[in-house]
Amino acid sequence: MSVARLVDSVGPLAAAVGGDPLLSGEVDLTVVLIVLLKVLVIFVGILVGVILMVWFERKLISDMQNRIGPNRAGPFGLLQTVADGMKLIFKEDLIPEKSDRFVFALAPFLSLVPAFLTFAIVPLAGNFNDDLGGTVEILGHKTFMQLADPQVGILWFLVMSSIAIYGVMLAGWASGSKYPLLGSVRATAQMISYEAALGLSLATVLLLSGTLSTNGIVRAQSGWEWNIWMTGIVPFVIFVIAATAELNRPPFDLVEAEQELVGGFQTEYSSFRFAMFYLAEFLNTVTMSAIIVTLFFGGPAGPTFGLTNWVGVYVLPFVWFFAKMFVFLCMFVAFRATLPRFRYDQVMDLGWKVLIPLALAWFLVLAGVRVAADQGWNALAVIGAGCAGIMAGGGLLLLALKSSQAKRLAADSAAAERSALKQTGGVR
Predict the structure, then answer these.
(1) 251 and 340 in contact (C-beta within 8 Å)?
(2) pLDDT of residue 322
(3) Per-residue confidence at 13, pLDDT binned at 50, 70, 90?
(4) In whole angstroms, what is the distance from residue 237 CA to residue 248 CA?
(5) Is 423 a domain residue?
(6) Most buried of the four, 21, 98, 314, 325, by CB within 10 Å?
(7) What residues contact 216, with CB distance under 8 A and at least 6 apart?
(8) pLDDT in tens, 276-324
(9) E-assigned strands of 11-130?
């Protein structure tokens, strides 16, 4: 395909998905080169970031546990992840005889690729002060410091997180073995359950921002109007818990916990295919931290101290973004090092009986507050009525759960009594 035909084919697609000013006008060779440059920088940057994240997690946990951690390969052990990756690449790649070979090979990509594609919608820099909207200038063209800004960016994030679930499910099913299949079913049930709570908490952000564009969400938070306190903190807490469970990170790492007889859905994987699942876990951690910063903490928006040159447009916004993201990376590592693992019934109870009802109730309260503001109602009265409704609903839910638990205990007791009578021949 010639360069001219490539440019002509990119034009209609850019017009369909582009919120980026780079794609709003005529798409020429320079625009294509800028997009390719963005792809290269983000791809290389996220790979290096994941390598450093693996090293950082191992090093920080070893410090917390009074151990040494990686210290042999490279300065401070920085090349240990590269050495482990090279070792896995050169190990023998085994494919079970009874597996579905095509799906078995496809599943790791379904877990890894969505994390890369999700990072494409994250704003990394740009000045969001003074109504600049995060625009920068590259080679004479105005653009955003993100690979793409589709008008349905948050839906793109939800779609990619859902596709990652298919990678886990198909990995266990295609292995042709019972234990990986059971592990994948359990992991899929956990991820789908917390997807609902995550989506409901995300709806509160969309309600306040009024847009699905990630750049628009960051613009709406400029001037310290971060969504973490504009939404009342509760959606942020729900989102963090749901994201941790969906990532299969501790304390929700029941997919491959040590109480397993085997390694969960990835039992039959080896060599580079196993490394892809391992890489996907840490890549998803980095990506989810970036998404949390974008949704609740203003992304790269922050004080630029009046600087409008390249320092105020590129350097300071990226520093703010990385500093915020680093806090959540430390949080995920702290979770792994300090929190005990849940039982599976506790995981499902937390998702279905606590997070989903709370997220829905909070969303309804915020929607009521927005309607009250539009209609001129008393906001305090609406908030009070909403909180009273939440408490009433929570009380009814607790009564229903206690009643169900009492019935279950009575049924178990009756079954045990019948079993005892059967063993003793009906003699008490």
Answers:
(1) yes
(2) 92
(3) very low
(4) 17
(5) no
(6) 325
(7) 19, 209, 210
(8) 888 888 899 999 999 999 999 988 888 877 777 778 788 888 899 999 9
(9) none
Domain span holding position 298: 3-377
**What is the average per-residue pLDDT within 324-337?**
92
Contact 170, 103 (CB under 8 A): yes
CA angle (251 as vertex; 190, 297 as ends), nearest 5 = 90
Average pLDDT over residues 338-362: 88
| Three-state secondary-structure class, residue 74 | coil
Contact 80, 247 (CB under 8 A): no
Q: Does residue 328 belong to any structural domain of this protein?
A: yes
Cα(362)–Cα(347) distance, integer angstroms: 21
How far apart are alpha carbons 289 and 224 in whole angstroms? 19
| 392 inside domain | no
User: Tokens in use for 378?
Assistant: 């008393």
Quote the mean pLDDT of the chain: 83
Nearest CA-CA partner of 296 in 335, 377, 238, 354: 238
Instruction: Single out the residue of 199, 203, 104 nearest to residue 161, CA to CA.
Output: 199
Which DSSP category does 138 fall into? E
Using the structure block, give the residue that is written with the tokens 């060599």.
271
pLDDT tens for residues 33-60?
Answer: 888 888 898 888 888 888 899 999 999 8
- Domain tally, the chain: 1
Omega into 21 within 30° of 0, i.e. cis? no
Specify the residue for token string 């390249």.
Answer: 310
Structure confidence by residue, pLDDT tens digits, 246-271 = 888 888 887 765 556 667 788 888 88
Q: Is the dihedral of CA 270, 69, 264, 357 positive or negative?
A: negative
CA distances (Å), 257 to each of 169, 254, 262, 390, in order?
17, 5, 9, 35
- Tokens 């946990």 belong to 61
Q: State the pLDDT at residue 295.
A: 92
Q: Which of 131, 116, 205 is nearest to 161 (CA)?
A: 116
**Distance between CA atoms of residues 57 and 282, nearest Å:** 10
Beta strands in 58-198 (DSSP E): 135-138, 141-144
* The dihedral formed by the CA atoms of 233, 237, 243 and 248, expressed in degrees to the nearest 10: 170
For the record, the structure tokens of 413 come out as 């007791």
Between β-strands 135-138 and 141-144, what pairing exists: parallel, antiparallel or unpaired? antiparallel
